[in-house]
Request: fold
Amino acid sequence: MPENFRSSKLYYFSILCNINFIFTYLKIHLFLNTMKPKKIEIIEKNLVIKWEDENISNISLIYLRNECPCAGCKGETVLLKAYKPPKIEKATPNMFKIKNIKIVGGYAIQILWLDGHNTGIYSWEYLKDLEKGQSKNSPQNYNELL
Ligand SMILES: [Zn+2]
Reply:
């Protein structure tokens, strides 16, 4: 390596980029290793998730459905423009009942609701956020996974 490159800004910048890359990698790695659920079940009107670290998340099905992360429910951002979906006119009881749950790619679940809605992909991280938010009943911001 030439001596002038070592002292250049570019050299330090490339080191910083590498450090940042390693941190991001470790974060993702740790996240994927610690956040996996061991067991997911529906108990009465709640989705109960037992995580590998023995923590238990208890999320009400109503909150889970209201915070469905799909573009149809949450809207989406295309080229920095936010598109908000129209409000659902009528809530039906079947909206809040789960017919089936599918594991997607080892990082999320896809929920098939009894009214046929199935486009919401709930990542482990999002489920954890929901659990935190439901006590305050606060709406979640959902940035779609790449
Ligand atoms: Zn949805």
Summary: The first helix runs from residue 3 to 6. Strands lie at 37-43, 46-51, 56-60, 76-78, 81-83, 98-104, 108-113, 121-123. Residues 98 and 113 are 4 Å apart (CA to CA).
